[in-house]
Design brief:
about 140 residues; mainly beta; four-stranded antiparallel β-sheet; globular
Length: about 140
């Protein structure tokens, strides 16, 4: 806490007298179906046989298929924010009804290990699992 305050004081904004404070948004999604960031990692090979993806999510509406992470080629990972999509290598884990309602912040993780388990966690609690395929992910995909 003290280190954070020190960094904020040293790096925080400085305003001249009479200058207005400006605010900025880092990322804002969900206004259209075309809202996304595309990322082409140079080397995903450390994650071909196991991975865990986590994020803080606040879904603004109850769309049928709100996708928060999509790894291609071939729809290898699809992580949704309403329980409908929890897919790795086309193995689907439907957890509809087990996710928080819209307009509530929650922490979501999708964990997968080839030949092991595919698990989904909400706010640190496991809400579903299934056996995982023994196949590996392609390491030359695109995150979207």
């Amino acid at each position: 806490m003290i280190a954070y305050l020190l960094v904020t004081i040293l790096v925080g904004p400085t305003l001249a007298a009479g200058e207005a404070l400006q605010t900025f948004k880092a990322l804002s999604f969900g206004r259209t179906t075309g809202d996304y960031v595309r990322f082409k990692p140079t080397d995903m090979s450390p994650f071909v046989s196991s991975l865990t993806v986590c994020g803080w999510i606040k879904r603004m509406h109850d769309a049928s298929y709100p996708i928060v992470l999509h790894y291609n080629p071939g729809d290898q990972i699809i992580m949704g924010s309403n329980g409908n999509w929890n897919t790795v290598l086309k193995q689907h884990l439907d957890l509809t009804g087990k996710f928080p309602e819209a307009k509530v912040w929650f922490h979501q993780c999708l964990s997968w290990a080839a030949g092991g388990k595919q698990k989904v966690y909400i706010n640190g609690e496991e809400i579903g699992s299934r056996s995982a395929s023994s196949s590996n992910l392609s390491w030359e995909g695109t995150l979207r």
